[in-house]
Amino acid sequence: MNPGKLNRKIAILEADQTSDGAGGFEDIFNPIKTVWGNIKSVNGRERILARQAQAEISHKVTIRYTDVVNHSHVLSFSDSKYNIQYIVDVNDEHKFLELAILRRD
After folding, report:
1. Residue 44 and residue 34: Cα distance in Å, rounded?
2. CA–CA dist 100, 83 (Å, integer)
3. CATH of the domain at 89
4. Structurally, how many domains does the chain consist of?
5. DSSP code of 1?
6. Looking at the whole model, is its pTM more than 0.85?
7. Is 58 exposed, middle or buried (0-12, 13-18, 19+ CB in 10 A)?
8. Mean pLDDT for each 10-residue chunk of the chain (105 residues)?
9. Rounded CA separation 75/80 (Å)
10. Strand 74-77 and strand 25-41: pairing?
11. How far from chain centre, in Å, is Cα 41?
């Protein structure tokens, strides 16, 4: 991955449940880190393959390696939030992570 392609600012958020005052809870998202990444929309064929693997995704994001991000975190960019479906250490080199994500409703 060419580091020059990491041209989108992405916030890594941690969800915290707080009372909504009516007996329920709502998620409040607290930023834990901001990173630069490359975002690619997934085409139809990749979506089908992803479904066969039991994980639906809408985008793939590449960021520099960090041990901060995990499956419970949420990514935010372009005024939308995304759940992390899976995380791959590209080539097991601890240089880049590929995150498969799905937009939250």
Report:
1. 29
2. 9
3. 2.40.10.270
4. 1
5. -
6. no
7. middle
8. 87 91 89 96 65 74 95 95 94 95 88
9. 8
10. unpaired
11. 12
Structural domain for 36, as ranges: 3-103
- What ranges make up the beta strands (E) of the chain? 8-19, 25-41, 59-64, 74-77, 80-89, 96-103
Q: Can you tell me the distance from the alpha carbon of 17 to that of 26, in angstroms, rounded to the nearest whole number? A: 5
Tally of CB atoms within 10 A around 39: 20
Say what the pLDDT of residue 19 is: 85
| Residues with Cβ within 8 Å of residue 35, at least 6 apart in sequence | 9, 10, 12, 63, 64, 66
